[in-house]
């Protein structure tokens, strides 16, 4: 991973305090984190460690008490509501545990929607959506409605929607939470391949097996980063056969 | 790990010589458990002594070949038919380490847990990447390459094993937090080290989160 490249996401000294006085809760205490294009980062930690708060602030769905959130170089905490909405639509894809596809729209229409909101023509948005679905081997689902798809299929369509157009930052909140492990794996494989193709991903999960698909695993405890792991060169782990492949 | 039965399984496919067995064993298991030639020959001579293999000529290059016997086949069949024994678990260094860390003076057990968790998750990241590669290979070569499939199964076993360890570490941490938050502030002293009490089991557990126990000796 190149560090010269501008990070897709940078968090700087991020804090978030809920409530005040005696009921004050420090959800985040000075988080610094950079995520570069091509990198998938998993955030793990016990419940209440602040991992969901981190993601919602990174996605502009919540505002920090102090600190900055840079998305492709722009400090989103300095934007007004309109500017933030536009940037979120253009730059950030969000994937939720419960897929959040619009039930009345087909897969292709769901994927096309953010592009239509960007103001491009419906026809062009559909073309882009079909291309995005095809690229992720989901072309056969284009005309299905959410209730005609399995959970895993819906979640993969949600990832396509998160990354359609020029968006290169995907934030995923327990994306496999509602899926069995086999299907969860197919969702992770897709996320992984999108990051290998240049997207930046941040995923909150409590499942070590899914976190293991990431390049880096960040451990939160009580609102602070306590530790992180970087994936090594796997060929050095199991030598011999592995290295020959 | 049963090298013995592994070798019998390979010999059932036809006579082989020592270093060939080693290569095939490793390509089946992806070098996860490397063998040296010495181990192979020691095992072969024990199998020969027990009548499960016999020396059976040489190949063109003059390597002595070994072949499985009928009683070797009976042994192999029974290995596949019977479960691997789990009633006498192997000694687990991590479990021993955490058991010793409970209440150990100057040791923060949460740090012990976290440093292990980092290491374990990192190993999982490596196995997962190897698995993704192996999956691609299997999809490309089809299900006919037995070695590719065997390697995938071994990798997945390593992933499941490390996953179980990571989950157990999470569980230990929750358990310790819960016990330390419910521990009575000024209740009866938990057993101090070296003092054996009647309720030995609960005594050690109550001391789990509280290094103080060691300092507040009665």
UniProtKB/TrEMBL annotation, chain A:
Concerning InterPro entries, the annotation shows: AAA+_ATPase (IPR003593), ABC_transporter-like_ATP-bd (IPR003439), ABC_transporter-like_CS (IPR017871), ABC_transpr_LolD-like (IPR015854), MacB-like_ATP-bd (IPR017911), P-loop_NTPase (IPR027417)
> Is DNA damage there in the keyword field?
no
* Positions in coiled-coil regions: none
Q: Which residues form the ABC transporter domain?
A: 9-242
What keywords sit in the KW lines?
ATP-binding, Nucleotide-binding, Transport
The answer to whether UniProt assigns keyword Nucleotide-binding to this entry is yes
The entry lists its GO molecular-function terms as: ATP binding
Q: Which domain of life is it from?
A: Bacteria
Protein name per Swiss-Prot or TrEMBL: ABC transporter ATP-binding protein
Q: Lineage in the entry?
A: Bacteria, Bacillati, Actinomycetota, Actinomycetes, Kitasatosporales
Automatic annotation (TrEMBL), chain B:
Annotated region Disordered: the residues are: 183-218
| A Pfam family of this chain | PadR
Where does the record place the Transcription regulator PadR C-terminal domain? Answer: 91-175
Bias kind Low complexity: ranges: 183-199
Q: Where is the signal peptide?
A: none
> Domain Transcription regulator PadR N-terminal spans what residues?
7-77
Q: Record's InterPro entries?
A: Tscrpt_reg_PadR_C (IPR018309), Tscrpt_reg_PadR_N (IPR005149), WH-like_DNA-bd_sf (IPR036388), WH_DNA-bd_sf (IPR036390)
Superkingdom is Bacteria
Q: What is this protein called?
A: PadR family transcriptional regulator
